[in-house]
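debug: dumping io for the single-chain case to check the tokenizer round-trip. Nothing else runs in this session.
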Amino acid sequence: MGRWEPDAQGRLQQAALALYTERGFDQTTVAEIAEQAGLTERTFFRYFADKREVLFGGQAQLLEQLTNGVAAAPDSATPLDAVSNGIQAVGAFFDGRREGSRLRQAVIDANPALQERELSKRAAFSVAMADGLVQRGVPATTARLTSEAGAAVFHLAFEQWLAADKHDLAYFVRRAVTALKAGI
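debug: decoded output
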């Protein structure tokens, strides 16, 4: 691929995922990713701070979408239903990305340092949901507890979605929220 071809960021992500899957995360270099994508290392660093960020890039936009989805839930929504609304809004991002998400998750599962980064992302999701709840006027303690439950809902729903071959992520979010409500 030539440097003039469109979607350099997407090409870098695809190349990185292919190499991480084939060789392993630790055995893959930024230079190899850039070469596979037909780009330079300099171009790689325009899009990503390091090779981990290829797997975790775009988080800021997802967190903003999550916070906004929670805050925009109907006024009648309980805090947990507002969190569910936000998670389902983020779930739309994953439409059509199940196979790539499976590959990404396999790379993360095989690397302890990436698992740590994934836990950090989960904590950031919880904070984003709490922020959305506070914007709705939910007391801080209730917002924190509900957002932690929401992070668990997202994690479980995401695992189930990856393991399935049908239904969108929102379906699994709704099922997890229903199970949580039944358990409380």
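debug: round-trip ok. Residues 77 and 85 are 9 Å apart (CA to CA).
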